[in-house]
Amino acid sequence: MPAVSKGDGMRGLAVFISDIRNCKSKEAEVKRINKELANIRSKFKGDKALDGYSKKKYVCKLLFIFLLGHDIDFGHMEAVNLLSSNKYTEKQIGYLFISVLVNSNSELIRLINNAIKNDLASRNATFMNLALHCIANVGSREMAEAFASDIPRILVAGDTMDSVKQSAALCLLRLNRTSPDLVPMGEWTARVVHLLNDQHLGVVTAATSLITTLAQKSPDDFKTSVSLAVARLSRIVTSASIDLQDYTYYFVAAPWLSVKLLRLLQCYPPPEDASLRSRLSECLETILNKAQEPPKSKKVQHSNAKNAVLFEAIALIIHHDSEPNLLVRACNQLGQFLQHRETNLRYLALESMCTLASSEFSHEAVKTHIETVISALKTERDVSVRQRAVDLLYAMCDRSNSKQIVAEMLSYLETADYSIREEIVLKVAILAEKYAVDYTWYVDTILNLIRIAGDYVSEEVWYRVIQIVINRDDVQGYAAKTVFEALQAPACHENLVKVGGYILGEFGNLIAGDPRSSPLVQFNLLHSKFHLCSVPTRALLLSAYIKFINLFPEVKGTIQDVLRSDSQLRNADVELQQRAVEYLRLSCIASTDILATVLEEMPPFPERESSILAKLKKKKGSSKLPDMDDSRKNVNGSAEHAEDAEVASKTPQFLLEELISTDRPHPSSSATMLPTRTMVPSHTFTDNLSVNSAPSSGASLLVDVFSDFSSAAPTESSDEHFPRFVCKNNGVIYENQLLQIGLKSEYRQNLGRMYVFYGNKTSTQFQSFSTSVSSNDVLCSHILCSAPQLPAE
């Protein structure tokens, strides 16, 4: 770039800037600026033509005024005129003004594009650089349309100077980011890869940035860049700092280029060629070895550059996940950073180790640092570092250390920052479920969660503990005893009341033999919390009361008195009022056998993926959640799905969508433990169907809906189901391992209506599912049949 001669200084500009700086008040500054704007406007409109120097000076003043925060509405044309000058300083000011003040919708864009085309065709390296910088700075769609085909030709032309190649590569990168659909992929793509072999490291650095972005969009077009990137990286890593003097930064050879090359290699899997893979492994080992060497300088810039290359190399090792030796070495190196005095290094080390924990080769090595991570969780001042420590504990958890990690997380939860409490609650709930061998420990853990951070325990968490207790007979008595004892505390969180009401309503009979937890004591304990709860919780407690009438006839009178009270029968909330009325009526007119049938114990929930994991993935993003040990069993005793080869091959995003789309069965606070007959009439039929079972997604509407009638073992035959329709209007007509078909009918005098419902019992969505209704000729004239197509859910 040409040097600016002494005569090119603009004295008028210097005086104006000095005047502005010497202003004592904002009013004085505005007054001086308005005076200067009036002078510039008169000069531009005057009869006397201005020379290039004057135009440059006045345009510079306008640019300075704009940077002070004042609007500029003239001078654009004079700046465009400067582009046609042959003097560098005048052309530079013109391009600078346009880059800052001209927007993409300006009427001058066509004139500007013409001037840029002239400079690109001039073959003057200085002018070409100015034009390319302007295109990159503006980056508008109009400029992309005008120059997207010209810039690649300049980039790969053999006679283009190195400085212009750098600018062209970065300009093309900018256009690809702003308007990727306008950047053509042609024969130049194969030639741009060879810029990695260029002797000028500045060109290589710019080209690497471009190739990395393009490879992410079209990896197959840039496969050949892998071997060239490895070769270039090898030359940099093995070279002495004096060999790359112009690109050595505080004794670190070409750190920026090294980082970019390592990022480019992360766009591809490990090289298939054995020699190339060996050469890359040698490069990575050399980088790890250099990290162990004593620092060559005490300057922070030296350590920053050195660590930047090291962390990018570790990221590549983790990406390839194929060299056990390198993975363990990387883990050990990161372990040294966990106690480093620099906060940023501790943060990056924890973040990288989270990813390492998901590798089978390095998981055990990561676990050796558990005490250091727990110490960081307790003593670290920076909340972001503590959050990464929580993430790492979650990632390194397995059966051998699950109780220790869950205990530490619960301990930290009491003092944790409010912004991360909900996430910690979700993680503790997931770990307690995944690694629970003794489910009494799981129940204790969830109740502790509610006690410590009840406000952050989402519905998914307490839904899940109820599902598990209902599905496991061996823990029901313990759960009932534990929640009974927890409810005796003077102050209980509302979520604990919900869990206690549900579990005691179902399994309170298991502890009723103890005088300390007799039916009346249980009822009085629950009812003492009633007036302190919200409407949904009160509705759940009323459902528990009607369950008590079935379980404990001796408290029937006491509960009926509560239901008869004005606070219930005349409650302002229609849901509570209607429940009280219907439950009272049901308890008065129904026989013991009918009550036993209507209020029977909840059936086991169908086995589904835990909704807590789906919630955590949605909150954090699937890419940030490390995989955990999948060798365990889930709560219902079946093998974890991640061990299945088909599921393991799915992408994280696919798994996330699948988990979120699969609704989980959960107890509904507004329809808890009630059959269809006792529900609010205003509810839709599908709402009523979900009452006596676990609500599920639309595709699985009838899973366990008619559990009263279906046999324990699914059957392929439907003939045995027909007799039940002699006395009942609804039930299951057909059921197997995949599908459940339910029938509901209504009759009024000589009119009848029949509904058929199809339930998907699998965890995957049916494809191209359709139904049809057929009847013989005699019935066609008497029966109206329709089968509306419902959207798959």
TrEMBL record:
Domain Clathrin adaptor alpha/beta/gamma-adaptin appendage Ig-like subdomain: from-to ranges: 723-791
SUPFAM superfamilies the UniProt entry points to: ARM repeat, Clathrin adaptor appendage domain
Entry keyword Metal-binding: no
Stated family: Belongs to the adaptor complexes large subunit family.
Gene3D superfamilies in the cross-refs: 2.60.40.1230, Leucine-rich Repeat Variant (1.25.10.10)
Coiled coil: none
GO cellular component, one term: AP-1 adaptor complex
Example GO biological process: endocytosis
Name of the molecule in the record: AP-1 complex subunit gamma
Keyword Transport: yes
Region (Disordered): 617-647
